[in-house]
Every structure is written in C-alpha cells, then in structure tokens.
Amino acid sequence: MSQAASPKVELHLHLEGAAPPAFIRGLASEKNVDLSRIFDADGHYSYRDFTEFLRVYEAATSVLQSPEDYYRLTRAVLSESAASGVVYSETFLSPDFCGGRDLGAWREYLHAIRTAADEATRDDGITLRGIVTCIRHFGPEKAKQTAFCAAETAGDWLVGFGIAGDESVGEPGDFAWSFDMAREAGLRLTAHAGEWRGPKGVADTLDALRVERIGHGVRSIQDLALVDRLAEDGIVLEVCPGSNIALGIYPDWRAHPIERLRERGVKVTVSTDDPPFFHTTMAHEFDRLADAFGWDDGDFAVLNRTAAEAAFCDRVTRDMIIKKLEAA
Ligand code: ADE
Ligand code: ZN
C-alpha cells in the first residue's frame, strides 16, 4: 500500500534546495535574471555531479533576494511537504543566503520565514522549525558570523545549528568554535558528514563538534566499529536515500545501507534533502523503501517515532506530533 497519505516527520530539508524549479524560474523572470543554464529541456534542475549540484543550488538561490522572496518560498515548499503527508519538518536556513550574515537583515528574513510557517500550520496543518547551517566551503570565518546570527536568534522556533556544503573542504575541527557558540546559546546540533567522506569524517565530526545528529552518515557502514558507536551513543542519522542515489553514491535502492544500519541498531530517520533536485518527495522515499526492503506500516511507525523523538523542538510540540502520528 502506498505511504502517500500517512503522516510523516522530516528532519533534513534545505529550504532553498526544496524550491520548485517553476518557482525559481518565476522569480528569475520577475528579476530579469537568465538562469536557463541550470535547467534541462524538461525544466528540471540539471547537474552532472555533486560539485555542479552545489553550483546550480547557489545559482538558483541567487534569485532569492528579499524576505518577501523567502516568505513565498517557504509557503511553496511547505505546501509540497504537506501534500506528501509531512506533519512536522525541520529546515536548514543559512544567514549566508538570507542577508549576507548581517544580523539585522537575518532577523527580517527569519521573521518572513516564520510568518509563512505559521500560515502553513493554519492552512496545511504542517509545523516547521529552523536549523541554521553554516556552509563548509565558505570557510570557518564566515561560519563564525553565521553562528553569531544563530545564537542571537535562538529560541522556540530557531532550534538548531549545523553545517552543510562541500564535505571535502577543511576539517570538522575548523568549525568547533562556531558549534561551541551555538551550543552555549542553547541550540541543538547536527552536521553533514559521511555523505562524501568515509567513517573517519563521521568520527572526527562527533569528536570535534559533539553533535547529536548526523546528516547522512551513510558511509559509516564501511566501519562496523563506528556503526556500533553510533548505536551505543544513540546518534541519530538523517538519512536521505533518494539524494544519495541521485548523486551516485549508491547505484540503486537495494544497495543503500539504510537497512543494514537499522539492523545493527542505529537510529535512522528518512528525509528528502533537496527534493526537486533529486526527483523525490517524502511519499516517494517511503514507497521506495517499502519496495526495496519490504518495510511495512510498523516499520514506518518506528521510523516516524524515532524522528519525532530526535526533533529539536520543545516537549509540547513533540507531544503534538506524536499525537498526530498515533491518530493515523
Ligand atoms: N546542501 C544542500 N544539499 C546538500 C547535500 N546533500 N550535502 C551537502 N550540502 C548540501
Ligand atoms: Zn543535506
């Protein structure tokens, strides 16, 4: 049975990466920006590999130039998520893209995004919380400014801090100062690791940044001692199988390690990362997991429960999500 209508919890979604291509084309045309090079003949985002994906992502993001643009983006993204059954989502936001790391500008972008999120809760029944991410290939100095913006706006809506971008650049320890600042401000921590680098990248991230969740983390499977450490320490993986397959890390769904990680006791969750870039939705991810590994309603209930428990929101919000999951 298709999982399309079942309630879902998503923890790993890049707001700009979730922008529908038609939405970005519309903004580009309003602003007279020629972005035709980033789309293929069918109007989808077009890239050959991860490096080009990051370039296309940043080109698409370049037409998001005001709080109003982010308000419209957030409404468009949450309407797509809700249509896929998502009842609670955490999204990555970057002051790098929202006001160039200027605190005053960042506050305005954040206000616009929160307004859109509140309206989506009212209209689409979906709840959103934000996680600020610094961008690894922009370097540690910019990450400090980003962490400062995050720390100053930490609270009941802006609940986490993390790092995305090109994992091959620099070392996790280069960003420890920023993560320490975020932790001291009360933000919960996650980091992209083990997507492109192997198990050592994951272990170094845990040691240097002391995060409780890892974005992707799938290459941990190459070192079973690390897998056991993840399981024992209760580290939650934000696994994005469709993203990994679209970017060529695994050839197909059956080859994806999510099932082996789960079987060895790791807390896995499932997300879409940048859904239109990878031709996916949360409903599609769930359906493909059912096809590839025979996951049934019971497996998906555990998956959603793990995600709800690992969410960075407050207790009242978590209880509300769990009620929605259990009512289904
Ligand atoms: N930014 C957006 N998507 C990403 C991914 N899959 N890995 C790293 N950084 C990203
Ligand atoms: Zn990601």
List the helices and strands and how they pair.
Layout: E1 8-14, H1 21-30, H2 50-61, H3 67-83, E2 86-93, H4 103-124, E3 127-135, H5 140-153, E4 158-164, H6 176-184, E5 188-193, H7 199-209, E6 213-216, H8 224-233, E7 236-239, H9 241-246, H10 258-263, E8 267-270, H11 282-293, H12 297-310, H13 315-327
Bound molecules: adenine and zinc ion.
Task: Write a short abstract of this structure.
The chain has 328 residues and is an alpha/beta fold.
Structure report:
Helix content is 48%, strand content 15%. The chain has 328 residues and is an alpha/beta fold. It has two domains: 271 residues, Alpha-Beta Barrel (TIM Barrel); 43 residues, no CATH class. It has an eight-stranded parallel sheet, with helices on both faces. β5, α7 and β6 form a beta-alpha-beta unit. The model has no long low-confidence stretch (mean pLDDT 98). Bound molecules: adenine and zinc ion.
Keywords summarizing the entry:
single chain, 328 residues, alpha/beta, TIM Barrel, eight-stranded parallel sheet, 13 helices, 8 strands, 48% helix, binds adenine, binds zinc ion
Class of the largest domain in CATH?
Alpha Beta
Count of helical segments? 13
Q: Could you say how many structural domains there are in total?
A: 2
The description of the largest β-sheet is: 8 strands, parallel
CATH architecture of the largest domain: Alpha-Beta Barrel
Radius of gyration: 18 Å
> How many extended strands?
8
Order of SSEs? EHHHEHEHEHEHEHEHHEHHH
Computed structural class: alpha/beta
The CATH homologous superfamily of the largest domain is termed Metal-dependent hydrolases
Query: Which word captures the global form?
Result: globular
Oligomer: single chain
How would you write the strand order of the largest sheet? Answer: 1-2-3-4-5-6-7-8
Bound molecules: adenine, zinc ion
Cα(first) to Cα(last) distance is 15 Å
CATH topology of the largest domain: TIM Barrel
The overall average pLDDT, rounded, is 98
